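Field log, afternoon session.

UNIT: design team B
ACTIVITY: writing a sequence onto a fixed backbone
BACKBONE:
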């Protein structure tokens, strides 16, 4: 489990292909001496397991499913990546709950300056857009961000200078692909609602609806 608060940026120093899978070696801009083999590290938002580990580098195995679902199919040696070690239960939860399981990818459609902020519009499938709400949370390349606006096939984010400076989002350009993980709690709520609609069952006490969730502060 992660928070979407990026600890540092690393560099992919090596890529080995094994069929449809890959092994990545990543040089980290931080001391990894407190980590151990088998630890989970979010790389551009994807939860990956360290299989080799040195003080400032590690390697991870990527299954074909992970490669197919993420932007790692297009990464090359020298690509910069966002890194976050797994959340400790004693830590403050500064971002939002991020599982590190990428739901899909999006494409940056526009980048616009607005005062001290950068407004990003990202194109996505209708399925992904359907799992987002205005002012809700989303993880982009592993970064916990707040959604400004949701359209049928896109959504809008506002990036502050600090986020642009310490993550890879400051290097991005129009046309770049990004990893996306929609809000975990929102996906569970959507699934429960859909399951109830299909089965025809309703919870005791009058039923659950989007209006009820909104009125009680869940949306």
């Amino acid at each position: 489990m992660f928070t979407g608060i990026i600890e540092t940026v690393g560099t992919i120093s090596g890529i080995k292909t094994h069929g449809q899978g890959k092994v990545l070696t990543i040089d980290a801009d931080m001391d990894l001496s407190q980590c151990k083999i088998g630890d989970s590290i979010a790389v551009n938002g994807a939860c990956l397991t360290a299989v080799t580990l040195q003080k400032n580098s590690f390697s991870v195995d990527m299954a074909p499913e992970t490669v197919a679902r993420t932007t790692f199919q297009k990464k090359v040696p020298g690509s910069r990546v966002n890194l976050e070690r797994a959340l400790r239960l004693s830590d403050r939860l500064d971002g939002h709950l991020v599982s590190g399981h990428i739901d899909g990818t999006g494409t940056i459609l526009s980048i616009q300056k607005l005062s001290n902020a950068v407004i990003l519009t990202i194109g996505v499938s209708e399925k992904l857009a359907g799992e987002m709400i205005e002012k809700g949370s989303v993880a982009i390349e592993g970064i916990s961000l707040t959604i400004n606006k949701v359209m049928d096939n896109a959504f809008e984010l506002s990036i502050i200078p600090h986020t642009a400076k310490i993550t890879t989002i400051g290097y991005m350009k129009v046309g770049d692909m990004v990893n996306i993980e929609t809000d975990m709690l929102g996906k569970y709520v959507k699934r429960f609602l859909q399951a109830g609609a299909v089965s025809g069952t309703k919870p005791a006490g009058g039923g659950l609806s989007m209006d009820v969730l909104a009125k009680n502060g869940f949306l």
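LOG NOTE: The domain at 8-85 is CATH 2.40.30.20 (Elongation Factor Tu (Ef-tu); domain 3).
NEXT ACTIVITY: expression trials, pending approval
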